[in-house]
Structure formats: C-alpha cells, structure tokens
Design a protein that fits this description.
By secondary structure, this protein is mainly α. It has 4 helices and no strands. The chain is rod-shaped.
Length: 116
C-alpha cells in the first residue's frame, strides 16, 4: 500500500495521515511553539488543505487550554493573596494597635464578638 492510498484516512479521528506538502510543516511547528499564531495556517495558501486546517484547529485548542490555565492560575493566586496575606496584614494592624494601647476593631473580622 503506497502513501497515496494511506491518505484516504483523512478526516477519520485518531488515524494519522501523512502530509503531502512539506512546506506546511514549518508553520505547523511554529504554531505549537506559539499557539497564538494558529491563524497563520489559515491565511496562507495552505488554508484549503486538510493538514493546515487540522493543525490550526489543534493549535487553537491548545491556545484555549493555555488561556483557561492562566485564568485558573489568576483566580487561585487571588485567593492565595486573600487567604494568606490579608490575615498577616490584619495581624500587623492588631499588633500596632496593641502597642499603641488602642482598642479599635480590626477591619473585616473585628466586629465579631466571639468571647463575651
């Protein structure tokens, strides 16, 4: 079975297909290094080729995965700041107020009277 016959599998998920145009490989590789460049395969002469569309789609999926990961990281870091830094800042405020002999409630949690 020669390679031309093997290309009949194009469009079947999970079945690898060999690229018949070696010139598209460079843009495909570049798109995996910098997924934001996925559109390059769609604006060149290769835009109507299955190889280019396939890899542009894969790169767009990868870009979306990166964006989701960055968003989750930003949210996690925001929570981390609140859960670790805010109590330290409140402790410093309380320490300063105690050293100054003040009886002022702490911001955020200071109005809670847990010990009566």
């Amino acid at each position: 079975m020669d390679e031309k016959q093997g290309s009949n599998n194009e469009g079947i998920p999970g079945v690898p297909v060999k690229n018949e145009e070696p010139g598209d490989k460079g843009l495909a590789v570049l798109g995996y290094i910098l997924p934001i460049l996925f559109f390059l395969l769609l604006v060149t002469e290769s835009k109507n080729k299955g190889f280019a569309k396939y890899h542009a789609n894969q790169q767009l999926n990868l870009l979306i995965a990166y964006i989701c990961a960055m968003a989750l990281t930003a949210i996690s870091l925001g929570l981390l700041v609140f859960t670790y830094i805010v109590p330290v800042v409140l402790a410093v405020i309380g320490l300063i107020r105690a050293l100054n002999g003040e009886m002022k409630p702490l911001p955020i949690f200071g109005r809670l009277d847990l010990i009566k």
